Amino acid sequence: MRPMEYEIIKFSIDDYDSMIKVWKLAGLPYKPRGRDSRDSISTQMEANPGMFRCCMKDGQMVGVVIGSTDGRRGYINRLAVIPECRNKGIAKTLLDSIEEYLDSLGLGIITVLIEDESEESMELFKARGYYFHEDIHYLSKRESPDV
Length: 147
Fold this sequence. Notes:
By secondary structure, this protein is α+β, with helices and mostly antiparallel strands. It has helices at 16-26, 38-47, 90-104, 119-127; strands spanning 6-10, 52-57, 60-69, 74-81, 110-112.
């Protein structure tokens, strides 16, 4: 259970700089000329209202998660908590918030992609009931390294 001084809220493009700061402090990759640009994030927010959630503590953003959907399944993207606020239940609470929203859309499947070096993330999602598919391979085609 999260302490009362933490609050999970939806956030807007006005919070973009705070979100980027959380990503950087948490060690997430950041592509400012591509998919993570202010314009790209703004477009994502317009297409998926309600899917951008953050955790605030004393007026500062300390965690973030982004959800999305293709209409058939939900996706959890960019879950990050700054190092000094980890192990306080923030990631779990952010997941609860975005999973609840994705469930409300009637999506029967929620997925997440986790990079190999992120063992903490892998353990968190496994503990939450996510299944690791050894037989699925992720491939992507990108117009540039910034996308």
